[in-house]
Write a structure and sequence with these properties.
By secondary structure, the chain is mainly α. About 70% of the residues lie in helices and about 0% in strands. It has a domain of about 230 residues. It starts with a helix and ends with a helix.
Amino acid sequence: MNTKKKIVIAVSFSVIILSKWFPPFGGLDQLGTTSLISTLGIILLLIFDALPLGLIAFIMITIQPVLGLTASLTETASLFASPIFFFTLVGFGISAVMSQVPLTKRILRFFIRRFGRSTRGMILAVCITAALFSTVISNFPVMLLFLALALSLVNAFENEEEKKSTGRTLFLLLPIAISIGGIMTPVGNVPMMLCSGFLADSGYSVGFLPWLIMGGGIALILFPISALLIFRLYPPAEMTPEKRQRFLDSLEIPEHFSRQEIYVMVILGITILCWILSSTFPALDMMLVGMVSLCFLLFPGFKIITWQEFNEKVNWATVLLVGSILAMCNMLSQNGVIQWMVDFFMGIIPSGINVSLLIFGLALFTFAVDLVMTNSPALFSLFGMPVIGIATALSVHPVMTAYPLAIFATFPILLPLEAVYLVAYTQGYYSIKEMFRAGLVISILLGAAAALWIPFCVSILGI
């Protein structure tokens, strides 16, 4: 552990401990003040990655009864094991199962045969396939799933300069494509799951199909323009038919579908169909459907994945963090901090503000916070309930503020700080300056697209 982290830990714990005696301010009572200040101490740990995420999750739970923010540990943990907590496991489970069958490679080959006549077409095939999988699997597992495929494509070139230019194009576009896929459904990533849950808890449920229409529209705008921009700024090397065939051969796809692969396709197909129908039939609860699907996928009789393999592939630290964040948000709401944040922001926001301007302003605010707070579930959880309260105060549907916040929280594309973008950056094919140059334009475009498209969808769909 370096000196910087030691200082952060010392400062964070000092803030958490002293929060008990911090004088009330800004209309908060003592309980609310302690809740807010101790939460800021936790945020410091998250911003600087000072401790393992799993340990931070335990600290988040522990300090609440210790500081008297909740009556007991039982009360603190009442929202820990929420449906969102279990649904996070579903995302990891589907990802784990997909890594056991060659379905990913089959779909990639399908797109290569349609688009892969050139290097740009090959890159588009990889990115489109990754985006599709990211609609139902969390972003980071998808990035890990496609990392080896992306490297195989780059390694199809023998010349180092060709590798460098092609790798730069591919690894700049791939995490953006994964992020775009993740916003298309309420099950695409953890912030989307949290957003869907927060809206439902506030009495504003949004079905799978309306969510798909909102997210799909943004994806159809953002992905082609992002691809064109990156291809123009950083063109890849040209790929000969021999190199293309070399890459296809490296996929090593079995000629026939196995029994396990067919079973996975059937289960996932039924799951996605039930999610779509959940907009019409509320009994098909999205999170319950996901849990049932995971049970079938893990069933040992079909020998797809063992429990031990599933256990090894789940990022338990992230799962614990999600549960702890939910518990902390519940505490902040009960102790008046969420309402205090709503009142604070309402004092800044001009009365009668156009909702599109509000969304674009939210984009600028979130992208700025992204530069220091790279944990997207924590970022959304901190501001999710306040933006729902702001929308309610402005008499607009909360999806018009909560959904954009979830989108912007998952697009930290100015610097390689978030896990998906960090994995791409550490491959060594592009510089921070090159990422910032493309990311700045795409961030502004994303804010504008969300500001125009989401209000239009809400009015047309009658959400």
